Amino acid sequence: MEVSTIICLLATLFVLIYNIYVLIHNANVTRKNPAVSDSSPRRIKNKTKQLEKHLLNLVAGERQTATRLISHAKRQNPGKSQQWYLEKVIWDLERDRGY
Q1: In this structure, how many other beta carbons lie within 10 angstroms of the beta carbon of residue 58?
Q2: Can you state the angle between helices 63-76 and 82-97, rounded to 10 degrees?
Q3: The model's pTM
Q4: What does the pLDDT look like over 37-72, one tens digit per residue?
Q5: Residue 30 half-sphere exposure, CB side, CA atoms within 13 Å?
Q6: Which residues does 43 contact at the CB level (< 8 Å), separation at least 6?
Q7: Contact 95, 58 (CB under 8 A)
Q8: Which of 7, 13, 19, 78 sits in a 20 to 30 Å window from 62, CA-based?
Q9: What is the DSSP string of 41-80?
Q10: Treating both helix axes as pointing N-terminal to C-terminal, what angle do 41-58 and 63-76 enclose, rounded to 10 degrees?
Q11: Is the pLDDT of residue 36 over 50?
């Protein structure tokens, strides 16, 4: 085999391995990241209340802190649902704290 053929095969192998890595990484992120599930409005409202309570527990009942974190998430990720923002803030806090 020529050197150029070997280099081409190695480059192709590298791209293949990288694509597999990206697929696996994205699957893990999708599984861990907050997402709005397909639910009835009542379930969403109950879920939102549960998330609000969980967030308040994480910030030791500091409503100002919870509100500030949600406002920041809204500025960084406009156009999402309230449930998404709550899940995002909770996910970030738990990730940063190593839960």
Answers
A1: 18
A2: 110
A3: 0.58
A4: 455 777 778 889 999 999 999 999 999 999 999 999
A5: 7
A6: none
A7: no
A8: 78
A9: HHHHHHHHHHHHHHHHHHTTT-HHHHHHHHHHHHHHSTT-
A10: 120
A11: no
